[in-house]
C-alpha cells in the first residue's frame, strides 16, 4: 500500500481515517461507559436531515450537518436528561424524523446529483483536504474539552447521582457530551457513513475496556485500536478493491467477535483446570494425634 500513498486522495483518506479514529476513541469511550449507544446512533441517523438541509440550501456539507446534528442532540439532551432509561421513544422519533426530513429535502432540491450511498456507507476516498482541517479542528476541540472536564466526566459516568450530590453539574455535562457526540458523528460519517458510524463509536472502546483500568487509559487504547483497525481496513479495501467504509467496519466486527471468542475459550479453559485439579487431602484430626 506504500506505493499508493503517492496519490493525494489516498493520503487524505489515511488522515481522515486516523482523525476519525481518535474522535471515536475519545467520544466512544464516554458513549460506552455511559451506556448511551442507542442515543449516539439516533444522533447519527438524524444527522441525515442535516445533509438534506445542506443540499437544499446550497450550504457546505460540514456546515449544514454540524448545525442540524447539534440541534438534534440538544433536543435529545433536553428530553432525556432526567430519565435516560425512558429515552428510547424520543430517540426513535427523532431518528426517523431526521432521516425522513433529509430524504424529502433532497427530493425538493432541484437538479441535485448527490451520491446517497456515500453518506449512508461512507466515502473516505473522496474526503478533500479542506475537510481534513475541519476534522482536525473538531478532534482538537473535543479532546481539549474532555481533558478539561475529565474528573467531572469520570464522576458522571460511574455514578451520576453521587456526582450530582457532590456538586458536579451533571446536567450541563450531559448536554456537553451529546454536543460532542453530534460533531464527532459528522466527521465520522465521511469515513464509514451514518449507518455504520455506531460501530466505530462502540467496538474499539468495548475492546479497550477489557484491558484498561482507568477512563483515560481506555480512551488512549481505544484510539490506538481504532487507528490500527482503520488502517487495516483501508489496506484490505485497497488490496481487493472493496468499499472502504464497509471494509473498515467488517474489520472492527471481526476484532469484536474474536475478542468474544477468546473470552469464552479462556473461561472454558479455566473451568476445565478447576475441574481437573485434585482435591486437597483432608487434614488429620488433631484429637486423633493426642490419642
Notable characteristics:
single chain, 78% helix, ABC transporter involved in vitamin B12 uptake, BtuC, mainly alpha, 0% strand
What this model shows, in words?
The protein has helices at 8-33, 37-46, 48-57, 61-80, 88-108, 116-121, 129-148, 150-158, 160-165, 170-192, 197-209, 215-240, 244-276, 286-290. The chain has a single domain (2-276), classed as Orthogonal Bundle (ABC transporter involved in vitamin B12 uptake, BtuC). It is mainly α and 291 residues long. Helix 2 packs parallel to helix 5.
How are the SSEs ordered, and which strands pair?
Elements: H1 8-33, H2 37-46, H3 48-57, H4 61-80, H5 88-108, H6 116-121, H7 129-148, H8 150-158, H9 160-165, H10 170-192, H11 197-209, H12 215-240, H13 244-276, H14 286-290
Helix pairs in contact: 1-7, 1-10, 1-11, 1-12, 2-4, 2-5, 2-11, 3-4, 3-5, 4-5, 4-10, 7-10, 11-12, 11-13, 12-13
Task: Characterize this entry briefly.
Helices cover 78% and strands 0% of the residues. The chain contains 14 helices and no strands.
Number of strands: 0
Backbone structural class:
mainly alpha
Strand fraction equals under 5%
Question: What is the ordering of alpha helices and beta strands?
Answer: HHHHHHHHHHHHHH
| Low-pLDDT segments, ≥5 res | none
Indicate the overall shape: globular
The main pleated sheet reads as: none
CATH architecture: Orthogonal Bundle
Amino acid at each position: 500500500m506504500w506505493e499508493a500513498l503517492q496519490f493525494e486522495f489516498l493520503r487524505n483518506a489515511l488522515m481522515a481515517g486516523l482523525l476519525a479514529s481518535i474522535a471515536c476513541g475519545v467520544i466512544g469511550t464516554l458513549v460506552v461507559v455511559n451506556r448511551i449507544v442507542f442515543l449516539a446512533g439516533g444522533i447519527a441517523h438524524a444527522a441525515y436531515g442535516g445533509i438534506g438541509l445542506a443540499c437544499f440550501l446550497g450550504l457546505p456539507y460540514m456546515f449544514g450537518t454540524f448545525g442540524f446534528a447539534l440541534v438534534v442532540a440538544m433536543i435529545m439532551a433536553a428530553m432525556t436528561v432526567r430519565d435516560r432509561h425512558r429515552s428510547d421513544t424520543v430517540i426513535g422519533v427523532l431518528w426517523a424524523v431526521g432521516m425522513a426530513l433529509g430524504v424529502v429535502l433532497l427530493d425538493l432540491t432541484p437538479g441535485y446529483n448527490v451520491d446517497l450511498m456515500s453518506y449512508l456507507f461512507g466515502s473516505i476516498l473522496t474526503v478533500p483536504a479542506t475537510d481534513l482541517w475541519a476534522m482536525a479542528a473538531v478532534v482538537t476541540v473535543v479532546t481539549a474539552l474532555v481533558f478539561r472536564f475529565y474528573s467531572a466526566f469520570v464522576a458522571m459516568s460511574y455514578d451520576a447521582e453521587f456526582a450530582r450530590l457532590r456538586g458536579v453539574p451533571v446536567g450541563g455535562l450531559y448536554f456537553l457530551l451529546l454536543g460532542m457526540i453530534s460533531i464527532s458523528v459528522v466527521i465520522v460519517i465521511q469515513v464509514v457513513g451514518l449507518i455504520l458510524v455506531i460501530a466505530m463509536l462502540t467496538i474499539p472502546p468495548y475492546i479497550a475496556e477489557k484491558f484498561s483500568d482507568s477512563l483515560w487509559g481506555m480512551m488512549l487504547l481505544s484510539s490506538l485500536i481504532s487507528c490500527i483497525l482503520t488502517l487495516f481496513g483501508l489496506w484490505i479495501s485497497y488490496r481487493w478493491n472493496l468499499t472502504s467504509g464497509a471494509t473498515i467496519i467488517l474489520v472492527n466486527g471481526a476484532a469484536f467477535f474474536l475478542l468474544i471468542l477468546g473470552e469464552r475459550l479462556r473461561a472454558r479453559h479455566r473451568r476445565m483446570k478447576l475441574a481437573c485439579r485434585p482435591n486437597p487431602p483432608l487434614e488429620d484430626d488433631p484429637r486423633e494425634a493426642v490419642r
